[in-house]
Amino acid sequence: MWTHMFVLNLPVAEKILRPVIVYAFLVIMLRIFGKRELAQLNPFDLVVLLSVSNTVQNAIIGDDNSVSGGLIGAFALFGINYLVVRFLFKHRRLDEILEGTPICLIENGCVCRDGLAKELLTESELLAVAHRQGFGSLEEIHHCTLEPGGAFYFKPKEPRPDERQHAEVMKRLEHMGSQLDDLRKLVGTR
Questions:
Q1: How far apart are CA 22 and CA 19, in angstroms?
Q2: Element (H or E) spanning 155, and its range?
Q3: Domain limits of the chain?
């Protein structure tokens, strides 16, 4: 039993090299296919990401199902990720080339159709993301950017409709308060 759990069926070098190759391949594929895959906008993208993990599993572990082999493969993945992140941190220009640059999706309140097309996003998908951020419609957004890591940055138009309504209500309340003060003064003087 212990032999099957801890004895490697493949050389250690191969156990390290397999995850490194798969890691590099996945980084390149995510860069080619864009930020959309990272943002996980719809069920189709989620299915692809889940399927990829299952598809590359055997490429990472090979014919070895031992605990030791799994731990070596996991260590190799964590190690290569640490080294890549550390290297890219020191080389910002290379990081920008590998990760890409932010894509503008809404500028000055207008939807940038070229940006949506580049990232293969529909307006309805962008609207769904905006709804999750608390916006009622795309008309409330002054600026929207899709960051290289797949995060959306929204800047609302100033002021937002709910803020405008709140300010209006407060202004009316202040006016009514001053009218009440005037009435009190008038009644108090009689």
A1: 5
A2: strand 152-156
A3: 2-99, 103-156
152-179 b/e (C-beta count within 10 Å ≥ 16 → b): bebebeeebeeeeeeeeeeeeeeeeeee
Q: Looking at the domain covering 103-156, what would its CATH class be?
A: alpha beta
Pairwise CA distance, residues 93 & 131, whole Å: 34
The one-digit pLDDT tens for each residue of the chain (190 residues) are 677 677 777 788 888 898 889 888 888 887 777 666 566 556 666 677 777 787 788 788 777 777 888 888 888 888 998 998 888 888 888 877 777 789 999 999 899 999 999 888 899 999 999 999 988 899 999 999 998 878 899 999 877 677 778 889 999 999 999 999 988 888 876 6
CA distance linking residue 167 with residue 93, whole number of Å: 45
pTM (whole model) above 0.85: no
Q: What are phi and psi of 140, to 5 degrees?
A: -80, -5
**CB-based contacts of 84, cutoff 8 Å, min separation 6:** 27
